[in-house]
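[User]
Protein folding is very new to me. Any chance you could explain this protein sequence and its structure tokens? I have pasted everything here:
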Amino acid sequence: MALVASGDMDFIKVHANELSSRDSITSGDIIRVLETPFDKERVYQEIRKNVDLLEPTISIYIGDSVTDLLCMLACDMGIIIGSSSSLKKVAHSFGISLVPLYKETLRLMKVRHSQGWQKTKGVLYTVSSWHEIYTFMVGLSCPHQT
């Protein structure tokens, strides 16, 4: 999960399970603090409540499984990475639209000067790689030019 203050890539804070390490070397074991959908949603709500909202802030949740669905719908922008067929099946069953993130990026470019990014209820964005997410976030953080 990432929280981004508009126009400030330095503000990105990522919350996730961690790799176990000792003396800067990881064993590959994962320290699981966020296992269930309810763990994830609880942490998301705690983070959101404690964020300084003096600046416009967009919460982005990036997930790859059904256990991420609650948070992806609760945040400002949910992004599905990868191709989980079960996640896509559940999303479609509940009427959730899945839109490629590049289409949202193109839409943003068209409306950038007038209204900027706005949440669309019932929509999750799809990507195949972290490169697409990075490109979108860099575009989000670039200052508006007139």
Q: What stands out?
A: The helical segments are 37-50, 69-74, 85-93, 101-111, 130-141. Residues 2-141 form one domain.
